[in-house]
Design brief:
By secondary structure, the protein is of the alpha/beta class. The protein contains 16 helices and 21 strands. The strands form 5 sheets. It has an 8-stranded parallel beta sheet with strand order 11-10-9-5-2-1-13-12. Strands 14-15-16-21-18 form a 5-stranded antiparallel beta sheet. The longest helix has 16 residues. The relative contact order is 0.10.
């Protein structure tokens, strides 16, 4: 570990994140090195060569900090230590070092808006109203009738306020009651969080994914949220009353922007990057606001492509709306992560062929922005059906059966079809923390490695080719009118970047299409990616097989 007072040297390339593909690793489910049924940091180290072989640029590691695991690491009890379940600080240092040798950047999750109720800060804060940490969390008196201070709701169900008998006050929790919110109006809290970020920068991490980064501040007056004019079904499901409010006062407060600037200034000292999670009533507007000017977040992503709507019109609409608002900011697009059902099922349907995984992948990496990629989507893994008695996710347990939670996308990574637990763990006498579905074994890494046409090998070819195309990495984007389910777009390289302008056409449906597009002459390219799914052009006529695609170089 670098313990010097001055920051480590700034890397030569501080813009690597623009157009990067960031591979998300969920430690519990990626690889179990010690055989206890839970993935760990040494397991990630074991599989670093696999991740590097994909052609991705960075790894985003979900929380591995000390935690009681009520929300599986997103409830942090110590921001500066690794939970023994996952390993040690020495393991993390080795992971960073070995990743760098392989040319991979390391980004780690930072959950700043709230801690675990077992964090030492909260333990002290709840003892009295006068202790040194008394104002480090959001405390409020009850209303005269004993009810909570206002109508704010928790994302995970029920009131966002929890009564504490010791202080005889309520504390705010935007998620679980065991996840009390920090009070960022307190300058001491702001400074402490920045110090904790610096701790990890000194250990060599290359960036951060900031969880729930719109929740840092709350309205000081604790005003009630008004009813939503249109119910939010993007960030929460229809069964969750959270979407019935317009969240004017419990998140996305104006004080957050100056604090993001302080974070950015710290990151700039180290040449580090950031991506923020935005789940707001108007997420695209906030994405643009939080990434503009070059002095806030480097990039941000929302839940707008994490919905069930997979239509070409929806995808085009979201990108165009963001582009209209985001002038000098940068997006990170994602259609899968640890919070939503697997895209192969959510978008492709119950029986979607692996060809769907490939066309969706090609489409995603052709959008303007960076990409956050969820582990296992390169295998075309489907959403696992976890019975209620095996559920681990408290969110799913609360809203069962209308919402079955997030366990279905978090099942262990299948590495070897015929090995115990799909090769995830060598612990023969210990079951993994979630079961490995039989259907996932059939798509294990060793099975797909042997098939040149698999989505796994397709991803390797696709990302290798994408790196040679400046237009796809940082270029401009415009869409071409096309009938559903076809998405057509043009990517043009930035001035001085070199490379060709590309026409990209994707058939997101299972049925072959024959369409006319009014576009300039092109020469087919990237035909090596998958000949079976390659589209053809004759004049202005485009013929694409089901789940087919076409890339063409346009004349200068």
């Amino acid at each position: 570990m670098n313990t010097s007072a001055s920051p480590r040297p700034i890397p030569a390339d501080t813009s690597w994140w623009r157009g990067a593909v960031i591979y998300q690793v969920y430690p519990r489910s990626f690889a179990d090195h010690n055989g206890d049924g839970v993935g760990d940091l040494p397991g990630i180290i074991d599989r670093l060569p696999y991740i590097a072989s994909l052609g991705v640029d960075a790894i985003w590691i979900s929380p591995f900090f000390r935690s009681p695991m009520k929300d599986f690491g997103y409830d942090i009890a110590d921001y500066r230590d690794v939970d023994p379940l996952f390993g040690t600080l020495a393991d993390l240092d080795r992971l960073i070092t070995e990743a760098h040798v392989l040319g991979l950047k390391i980004m780690i999750d930072q959950v700043l808006s709230h801690t675990s109720d077992q964090h030492a800060w909260f333990t002290e804060s709840r003892t009295s109203r006068t202790n040194p940490k008394a104002d480090w969390y959001v405390w409020a008196d009850p209303q005269p009738d004993g009810t909570p201070p206002n109508n704010w709701l928790s994302v995970f169900g029920g009131s966002a306020w929890q009564w504490d008998a010791r202080r005889r006050q309520f504390y705010l929790h935007n998620f679980l009651a065991s996840q009390p919110d920090l009070n960022f109006h307190n300058p001491e809290v702001q400074d402490q969080v920045l110090a904790d970020i610096r701790f990890w920068l000194e250990r060599g991490v290359d960036g951060f994914r900031f969880d729930a980064c719109i929740f840092h501040f709350h309205d000081r007056q604790l005003r009630n949220n008004p009813p939503a004019e249109k119910r939010d079904t993007r960030s929460v499901g229809e069964s969750n009353p959270y979407g019935m409010q317009r969240h004017l006062y419990d998140k996305t407060q104006p004080e957050n922007v100056p604090y993001l600037k302080r974070i950015r200034a710290l990151l700039n000292e180290y040449g580090a990057a950031s991506v923020g999670e935005i789940g707001d009533d108007d997420s695209l507007k906030v994405m643009a606001e939080y990434t503009k000017g070059g002095d806030r977040l480097h990039m941000a992503y929302s839940f707008n492509l994490l919905t069930t709507d997979n239509s070409a019109a929806h995808i085009r609409g979201e990108v165009e709306e963001l582009e209209a608002q985001m002038h000098d900011g940068w997006a990170s697009w994602s259609y899968g992560n640890h919070d939503v059902a697997r895209v192969q099922t959510r978008w492709g349907g119950a029986d979607a062929p692996l060809a769907y995984s490939k066309v969706a992948m090609a489409m995603l990496v052709s959008l303007r922005g960076s990409v956050c990629w969820w582990q296992g989507d390169e295998l075309g893994l489907t959403e696992a059906d976890i019975p209620f008695e095996k559920l681990q996710d408290p969110y799913g347990i609360t809203f069962w059966p209308e919402f079955k939670g997030r366990d279905g996308c978090r099942t262990p990574m299948p590495w070897a079809q015929h090995q115990p637990h799909g090769g995830f763990s060598n612990g023969l006498d210990v079951a993994p923390w979630l079961p490995v579905p039989a259907e996932h074994r059939a798509r294990a890494v060793d099975v797909l490695e042997a098939d040149p046409a698999s989505p796994l090998n397709f991803m390797r070819r696709l990302l290798a080719w994408r790196k040679t195309q400046p237009a796809l990495l940082t270029g401009d984007i415009r869409f071409i009118d096309a009938p559903e389910p076809v998405l057509a777009l043009v990517r043009s390289p930035e001035a001085g970047a070199g490379g060709k302008t590309l026409l990209c056409v994707f058939n997101l449906g299972a049925t072959p299409v024959d369409i006319t597009l009014d576009v300039a002459t092109t020469v087919a390219t990237a035909t090596h990616l998958d000949p079976a799914q390659q589209g053809r052009r004759a004049g202005n006529r485009f013929t694409l097989p089901g789940h087919g695609f076409y890339f063409g170089e346009m004349a200068a």
